[in-house]
Amino acid sequence: MKNDIKEVLYSEEIILRKVIELGERIANDYKGKELLVIGVLKGANVFMSDLIRKIDLPLQIDFIAASSYGHSTESSGIVKIIKDLDYSIEGKHILIVEDIIDTGLTLKYLSENFNSRGPKSLEIVTLLDKPDRRKVDLNVKYVGFKIPDEFIVGYGIDFAEKYRNLPYIATLKKEVYI
Ligand SMILES: O=P(O)(O)OC[C@H]1O[C@H](OP(=O)(O)OP(=O)(O)O)[C@H](O)[C@@H]1O
Ligand SMILES: [Mg+2]
Prior knowledge:
Elements: E1 5-10, H1 12-29, E2 35-41, H2 45-52, E3 59-67, E4 80-83, E5 93-101, H3 105-115, E6 121-129, E7 142-146, E8 152-153, E9 169-172, H4 174-177
Parallel strand pairs: 2-3, 2-5, 5-6, 6-7
Antiparallel strand pairs: 1-9, 3-4, 8-9
The structure holds 1-O-pyrophosphono-5-O-phosphono-alpha-D-ribofuranose and magnesium ion (MG).
InterPro entries: HGPRT, Hxn_phspho_trans, PRTase-like, PRTase_dom
Pathway: Purine metabolism; GMP biosynthesis via salvage pathway; GMP from guanine: step 1/1; Purine metabolism; IMP biosynthesis via salvage pathway; IMP from hypoxanthine: step 1/1
Family: Belongs to the purine/pyrimidine phosphoribosyltransferase family.
């Protein structure tokens, strides 16, 4: 697995520091409110697990599973919901947790879908943001790192379902995916 890595962009230590910073900001912003944190599977699984333990507030969690990349490095443009939320979000303060925003199509689709269910508020936190690749406008309140237009893996993020268990975030050698 390590032979496929081109460059480590963010080490475990750097990621942890960012997760703590985001968790503190979120805890501060939602003080006194009932918060429901929704992770977008599978990619956000690792970030979500670390982040919720750095939000010092009573909160609830739920998950939705969505996929649009499959085994490609380009979005198919069609967002498929593979598993829906378990509970209603009507009247609740919702925070969507994503690992990465690329074209923005996944979150555009999910935000519109969630907004139609009548939440009290809806915000997004993403660990990584690739603004140069955006195809649709999105309002993202919490961003960990802005990254250049390169295909990345690790810390939950895959290529063809591999590399999710790398503890750091890295770029892949081109020959691996071309
Ligand atoms: O902004 P976008 O271009 O829509 O890309 C971002 C989405 O793509 C990845 O999910 P993917 O569809 O690969 O499913 P996965 O989380 O199971 O890997 C990632 O986890 C985001 O959810
Ligand atoms: Mg993926």
